[in-house]
Every structure is written in C-alpha cells, then in structure tokens.
Amino acid sequence: MSNIAPDLKHSAPGILVMGVGSSGARAVCAMQDLNPGLNAVCVDTDLRLLESMESERVIHVGSSITRGLSAGGDVELGRQSVEKDSSAIRKLLRNVDLLVIVAGLGGGTGSGAVPVITRIAREAGTLVLAMVGMPFKFEGKKVGMVAEDALKRIRTHADAIVRISNERLLNRADADKPIEISFARSHQVMMDAIISLWRLLSRCGVCGLDFACIHTMLRNCDGFCHVAVVEGAGADRAALVAEGIMAHPLLMKGKLISSAVGLIVGMTGGHDLKLSEVETVMNRIQEKLAVDDVWLNFGVITDSAFEGRLSVIILAAEQWKEPLVDSSGRQMGFRFNPARPVEQGELMLETVGKGEFAYVDPTIHNNQDLDVPTYIRREIKLPR
Questions:
Q1: 30, 146, 165, 207 — which has fewest CB within 10 A?
Q2: Residue 39 belongs to a domain
Q3: What's the mean pLDDT when you consider all of the chain?
Q4: Based on the number of CB atoms within 10 Å of its own CB, is 172 exposed (0-12), middle (13-18) or buried (19 or more)?
Q5: What is the DSSP string of 238-254?
Q6: 325: phi > 0 → left, psi -120 to 50 → alpha, else beta; which?
Q7: What is the pTM of this model?
C-alpha cells in the first residue's frame, strides 16, 4: 500500500515550451516533430505561418491589429498584438511551473511580445527562462539595437536569459555553407538545450537533478546564464564530451567554465554508461573551475535510446546574487548600516516590515496593497 499522499503523487513540475515570433515558432515546431511528448505551443501574428505548421497547439495573436500578417519588424505592433490576446496565454500558464520561451530578437513580434509574455508569466508565479537568438552583424545596427532593447525589457521579468549569439556560433569555415544550414545553427542549439533540459526534468535520474536545482540556479544567476550541449559516441565518448565542452563556442572555449560561479551539469547516457565515464567529464570540468566554492549540481539519467552515446548539457552562471525580490511575498526595504563604510555601490535590500506604518490601514485596490512598492507586488527584478 502506498504511503504517498494523493496530492503529491502527481507533483512533477509543469514545463511549457513557447515559441514566439516566426523564428521561435519554427524552432519549437521542429522540437515537437522530434519529441511528440514535449508540452509546447507556438505564438505568432503571422496566420499563414501558423497554418503551415503541423503543430496542433498554436495561438494566433493580433488578428485585429495585423490582420493575420506579421508585425513587419514593428516592435510596437508585436507588443500590442500579444496584449490584445493575452487571455489565452494567461489560461495556458495556470498549471505551469517553468516556462521556456524561445524567440529570435531583432524583429517585430519576438522583440515586442516576449517582454509582455515574461511579465504575464511572472504575475502568474511561473519561473521564466528565455532562450533568445541574437541577430547577425550583417543584419544592421538598427536590428541589433532593437534586439538589445528587447533584451533589457525581457530581463525585467524573466528569471534568466540565455543569449544564443548567431555571430559566435558561426566561424569562417561556415561561410561557404548553404544559408539555410547557417541560419539553422541557432535553432539547433536551442532545440538541443531545451530537449536535454526537458528530458532531465521529466524523468527520474540515477542521481539527483530536479526542478528545485533549476529553480535555485535561475533565481540566483542575476539575469543571464549560458548553455551548451555536447554529445559523444563510441568507446571514447566521455573524453570526446569533456574536450567538446572545453572547445564549445557558446562557452567561449572553456573560459565561461573557468569564470562560472554557478554550474549545472546534466548527463544522459545508455544503460551501458559507466561511473568512470561520469568521473572523466566531471573531473575535466572541476579542473577548469577557478574557485573552490562554485555552486555545482549534476544529474545523470539513463535512456535506452542513448546506448553507446553520451549527451551532456551545461548551464553556467557568471554571477551569483540573492534575488532582489522575495517571491514568498515578504516585504523588503532599505536599511542603512552605519558600521559599514560609506562608499559607492549597491544598496542592500533586507527583509523588513512597514516600520512606522505597520499599524496603519493599508490602501487596497483590486485586492492589492498599494502601500507595497510596485516592484515587489509584481516581482519585478531591479537592474543592478
């Protein structure tokens, strides 16, 4: 007879992957083709693009604004479109613990809609990881500026952002490859990372890596983290993966490992995976770390589809800071410590009450206490 409480038997985290804009929608649709069990949805203003996809879960936004066309590179149209039809997105997020947003920045729908969706998700209490592709340099300074501005607005509400630099992914050897292959590189990186993450969180592993680890990492990485997926096959698969991690362009050939203060390593192998192979990969990573007190978690799962292969996903954080917003609802405020020398820097936020106003009747509007600062009520992360 089971001793597990009925309300805990189905407590696996709800993960939703959302592709926003044409680039994000195409990437997520491809992920669904490879992994039909992936909980995913595509959001766009372009009705023709959504109708051409085989995905059954699509949300068409802005029909009254763009009339079924794309946003045409207009960020404001992208923002208005998702604001107008936000109810469908709010409904989707009711039972979602982790929302992974996939988008390409620099255009209209992705750059305009993603900041709104991250805000909606945070209001719903959902953890948000945004995985965004940054434009090539040859796309022009204007597109680059649009992408950077969108990135700043996304950071306000997202728990973490993974920037996929198209420029960094390509080297001169790729210049003579067909353009479809070149542009597909960032999609492939996103697909590999999200599918690896989904696999680790949706299955019971040999050793622990769960949603709580991801939650800790994303809440403390101060906005940005880096991701890379490396695979190896054959008798030397562990050595190949270890060296592949150190040579990966998105990890700046190992430099981001050496500067990391937070690290998650997730491994997937077949039932033939050996402890010595896990040790080979982890030792290589440990050797590269510059400090001893790195926050590090790793997990291992086995899958019969990976017989003879080893896949490793790396999430690396360059900064580790306590969140400025306490998601448990405690109020925070500024407190001056006279013992601390006066110098230019960050004001420290500490948990305090309302002080002299603790016993004053609150100003309530729409079930919200307006005496609580807006950034706390809406859990907006302040820029550091």
A1: 207
A2: yes
A3: 78
A4: exposed
A5: HHHHHHHHHH-GGGTTT
A6: beta
A7: 0.73
